[in-house]
Amino acid sequence: GSSLLTGPEGLMAKERENLKRLKCLRRYRQRYGVEALLHRQLKERRMLATDGAAQQAHTTRSSQRCLAFVDDVRCSNQSLPMTRHCLTHICQDTNQTLFKPCHGSEEIPCNKPVPVSLSEDPCCPLHLRLPPPMYVPEQVLAVPEELEAAPTDLYLSAAELQPTESLPLEFSD
């Protein structure tokens, strides 16, 4: 601020006002004195509160177990996020809409939970019905037996196909 002095005559009123504004802008985001002390204490209290809340949320989330009972024994699996049941027992929750039990087949009933997809009847991989094959192999034509049993003496061997004598040029096409 002292560098703004223009000499022995001092500052004009307008320059003094600008200098005052400049000093205010330099410490715009800085706190001094009691305000700085109170702000530091508030930050420390917030840090303690958020650290405690984060640890508490972590411990409660890791301790959430499935609420289902199997043979009067509580399930020990961890529950799915935002639910009260594990993946095995998620269908027992009447409010959920993301999973449906697999109906299985007539011979083998199945109640495995399956994510609801675009199909109307979701199935587990064991009971999934595959679509018909798109590729149909060509039918092999049946060869008549009389062609298969052709005599071999009608065919010439490779040695018989080789010319043994040189023919005149007029016959050697």
UniProtKB/TrEMBL annotation:
Signal peptide: none annotated. Residues 72-127 form the KANL2-like probable zinc-finger domain. Keywords: Chromatin regulator, Isopeptide bond, Mitochondrion, Nucleus, Phosphoprotein, Ubl conjugation. It is found in: Mitochondrion; Nucleus. The keyword Nucleus applies. GO terms for biological process: chromatin organization. One of its GO terms (cellular component) is mitochondrion. PANTHER family: KAT8 REGULATORY NSL COMPLEX SUBUNIT 2. Non-catalytic component of the NSL histone acetyltransferase complex, a multiprotein complex that mediates histone H4 acetylation at 'Lys-5'- and 'Lys-8' (H4K5ac and H4K8ac) at transcription start sites and promotes transcription initiation. Required for NSL complex stability and for transcription of intraciliary transport genes in both ciliated and non-ciliated cells by regulating histone H4 acetylation at 'Lys-5'- and 'Lys-12' (H4K5ac and H4K12ac). This is necessary for cilium assembly in ciliated cells and for organization of the microtubule cytoskeleton in non-ciliated cells. Component of the NSL complex at least composed of KAT8/MOF, KANSL1, KANSL2, KANSL3, MCRS1, PHF20, OGT1/OGT, WDR5 and HCFC1. This is KAT8 regulatory NSL complex subunit 2. It comes from Ciconia maguari.
